[in-house]
Amino acid sequence: MIVLAVLNARQAGHTRGSSVWPVTYLMAAVVSGEAALFLYVIATLYAGELMWRERDVHFDQIHDALPVPSWVNWCNQFLSLALLEFILITIVMFCGIAVQASLAISTSSCRSIQGTVPDCLPEVLTFVLFALFVQTMLSNKFAGHAV
Predict the structure, then answer these.
(1) Which of 144, 145, 98, 89 minimizes the C-alpha distance to 122?
(2) Do the domain assignments include residue 93?
(3) pLDDT in tens, 26-78
(4) Other Cβ atoms closer than 10 A to 73
(5) Would you give the distance in Å from CA 102 to the centre of its chain?
(6) Alpha carbon distance 144, 58 (integer Å)
(7) Is residue 19 a part of any domain in this protein?
């Protein structure tokens, strides 16, 4: 993902066939737009693995008999996926900042942080909720991946 983000960020200076300065809004749009597919694939696969890990090793009946409410387990799964997605978005953001710094662009990296994380994170977290919901409702992990 780091290689993909850096390569796409290097292309932020070329818009519609002409060379422009890779300013912050172009960098944030290119880096976060290209990384979105990767973030959705990670959310889909990991949601399936989190929801089905007890069932795959036949530990689900013991796990369901624990005195912990089921919403606690579900919130833990959501928070772990949310943290993973936040870390990946932060890595992508720092790749964009590093490319801007390597091209000696004098823009504030604070605007990159404000431009990348708030734009991507709500969409990705909504997709994480949807992926966990689908895996909860379906009785097959691979059907959940397909949906």
Answers:
(1) 89
(2) yes
(3) 666 666 667 778 888 899 999 988 888 777 777 777 777 778 887 888 899 89
(4) 16
(5) 25
(6) 19
(7) no
What are 52's two structure tokens? Answer: 């089905």
Please report which confidence band the pLDDT of residue 134 belongs to, taking 50, 70 and 90 as the band edges.
very high
Decide if 18 is inside a domain: no
Give the DSSP letter string of the chain: -HHHHHHHHHGGGEETTEE----HHHHHHHHHHHHHHHHHHHHHHHHHHHHHHHHHTT-HHHHHTSSS-HHHHHHHHHHHHHHHHHHHHHHHHHHHHHHHHHTT----HHHHHHHHHHHHHHHHHHHHHHHHHHHHH-S-HHHHHH-
* Claim: this prediction has a pTM higher than 0.70: yes
Residue 32 sits at φ, ψ, to 5 deg, of: -75, -30
Note down the domain range covering 136.
2-9+24-146
Task: Give pLDDT tens digits for 73-94.
Answer: 889 989 999 999 988 888 877 7
CB 101, CB 20: distance < 8 Å: no
How many structural domains comprise the chain? 1
- The token pair that represents 42 in the structure block: 């990670």
